Amino acid sequence: MLRFLLIFVYFCFTTSQGFSQKKKAKTSENFVLEQLAPGVWAAIHNDQYGKAICNAGIVDLGDKTLVFDPFMTPQAARELRAIAEDLTNRPVTIVVNSHFHNDHIRGNQEFTPFATIISSTYTRDQIALMEPEQQQWEKHHAPALLKATKKIYNSATGIDREELPMWIGYYEGMMESIDNLVITLPDIVFNDSLWILGSKRNVKLVEFKNCHTASDVALIIPSDRIAFLGDILFVQRHPWMADGEPASWQASLKHLYEDQSISTYVPGHGAVCDKRGLKSLQDYFDNIQQLTNSAMADSTQSLLLTQPIPKQYQNWYFSRFYQSNVKFLLSAIKHQE
């Protein structure tokens, strides 16, 4: 018992010391802070060369500070941590990973050793499995991808030119951080749901299966009617379908849309929205699936892959995902035959 108390006192002392010595940051070139309620902030990725890549959340639980999805690059994560500590006047002690993709988990390393990192069981397993291979792939390919993207930007026009700074920031961030990454796995895992109780507010982590990936965690704040959805939701951006299950994903979007206890949604990518953002993504799934379902003959399928993006989605970012989504849906149709 005495040994436990000594360890506990040491931990509290070192935590406060580490917190007091950190420099505080109020602004960032990587993201924009948006307050959603007293004590709740969304950190929205800056599409103009930002290196956060995904959106994040900061939640003041009263006696604890929580960060949801700590970005892709350590640099952006350090800024997020400093701003979170400045806003709440305490260190970040809880970090949540919504899913395993690199842009949502690599900031983990900037919150250890004082923060507990939480994810679903599947997400932790996938980080351990996928990250070593993913990082090796990026070391070999990111320089060429960055060079090609900059070259395309010089001659691009319209929405292509508007979107490309986001991809340049993505590859630049990748190259700047790749040699300093430490694979940092979650400390606590759960399945289905988990409540985190604070002195000021409680939050619920909910696992949605077979959406953007086999396991995506949303953070629900019932008292403020806010949901951080990670990549269950993309706003004015083409979603990445190939790691998920579209039918189940649509069912989850419908469930969230019909839930009247939530009114504000923070997507993994794009702007904070109300229920119209969910409806827009639902319609995207419906429309793209109608196109692929109607392309039964091989010749029609080939033609579909060469056609431009449907007009209503031509101004959406992540335009390169559209053709991948069509290929994925066509492949699913062939598999069912």
What is this structure, in a nutshell?
The chain is built from nine helices and twelve strands. The protein has 337 residues and is an alpha/beta fold.
Largest sheet: 7 strands, mixed
Overall radius of gyration: 21 Å
So how many helices? Answer: 9
CATH class of the domain at 11-124 and 182-276: Alpha Beta
Could you list some keywords that capture this structure?
5-stranded mixed sheet; single chain; 7-stranded mixed sheet; 337 residues; globular; 12 strands
Describe this structure in words.
With 337 residues, the protein is of the alpha/beta class. The protein has a domain at 11-124 and 182-276: Metallo-beta-lactamase, Chain A. Helix content is 45%, strand content 20%. The strands form two sheets. The chain has a seven-stranded mixed β-sheet. It has a five-stranded mixed β-sheet with strand order 8-9-10-11-12, with helices on one face. A hairpin with a 5-residue loop joins strand 9 and strand 10 (215-221). Helix 7 (275-294) crosses helix 9 (320-336). The longest helix has 35 residues, at 121-155. Residues 1-25 have low confidence and may be disordered.
